Amino acid sequence: MRLMIACPKIGDPVSVAADFDRERLVMLPSVNTMARPCSLCGERHAWRMTDAWIENEQRLPMIDAA
Fold first, then answer.
1. Does residue 62 lie within any of the structural domains?
2. I want to staple 20 with a disulfide (CB 3.0 to 4.6 A). Which of 3, 32, 35, 47 is the partner?
3. Is the dihedral of CA 13, 15, 18, 24 positive or negative?
4. What is the DSSP code (8-state) at residue 25?
5. Is residue 17 part of a domain?
């Protein structure tokens, strides 16, 4: 499954990582900010783990375990 965020410029979902599952997602700290080039608009977006969700899963609020 792919880890998704919404492109802040366009608003559509975009993948930021492949081969992710919910168990790996909840283990990552939500306070870290990451940046990736966007495949939709070409800009580099900063995002937090709390902005992300697993493709084809209901988007659930993330709880920071740290």
1. no
2. 3
3. negative
4. H
5. yes
What are the start-end ranges of the H helices in the chain?
22-27
Which of the pair, 55 or 24, is modelled with greater confidence? 55
- Checking phi first, is residue 19 left (phi over 0); if not, alpha (psi -120 to 50) or beta? left
Compute the mean pLDDT over every residue in the chain, rounded to the nearest whole number.
Answer: 78
Q: What is the rounded CA–CA span in Å between residue 14 and residue 21?
A: 16
Structure tokens at 51: 């902005």
| Structural domain contains residue 59 | no
Phi, psi of 48 (to 5 degrees): -110, 160
pLDDT of residue 3: 85
Q: How far apart are CA 12 and CA 4, in angstroms?
A: 10
* Closest listed residue to residue 28, CA positions, set 39, 38, 20, 18: 20
